[in-house]
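anyone seen this seq b4? input:
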Amino acid sequence: MAHLLIVEDDELLRDGLCAQLVHAGHSVSSASDGAQAQNLLESTRFDGVVLDLGLPVVDGITVLIWIRQRLAALPVLILTARDGVEDRVQGLNAGADDYLTKPFEMAELLARLEAMLRRSRLPAFGGSLEVQSSTSKNLRLDPVLPLGWLGEEAMELTHREWSLLSLMVNNMGQVVSREDVLAVWQTAPQEGGAAGSNALEVYVHRLRRKLNDSGLNIRNVRGLGYMLESDTP
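predicted toks r here
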């Protein structure tokens, strides 16, 4: 489940999008103009944005540039009636992650959103991923290689364990669904056995044992997925 912001000035389309996305299992907030969207983005954490370009008060491209200056990693899908090549190029160059023109099929929008959200949860290239704990054993993960450390002690991680733990670190304090994990595993090297729900339970159990006494815990959120938590206040 993701928390999405829908920025669309057409009330009927906005309400329809919100209803469909809620039905798909997401939580949704909405804005009817660019200024309202900026206010919501300043006060609320979102996992993704669906952004119309032809907005009143503050136009969509301006909002997109504003997002990239303040929330560089926030995924944004442009949804607009502007179907010219120059418009698409302008939107992508301004920082959009994807682009869909009106009219559109809801199934395609949902598929593009899910793909965009999956990509956003992958570890970024760059420095190590780190989670603080109440002990001296902070968790660090290499963002590219299946390597990890608890404090100064190296962790032995298989590729699936590393990709699962990286996904939870990137979504610390939020539920990671089984579907999200299995989607990431599809792109990971095979290491024996099918990457199904039963296998996932085994890998979660292994990681819990490896995180023992670290101040970190993987909580099973019934019916939704898993959440990495720290006992740090």
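The helical segments are 11-23, 34-43, 60-70, 85-93, 106-121, 159-170, 178-186, 197-210. The chain has eight helices and twelve strands. kinda curious what u guys think
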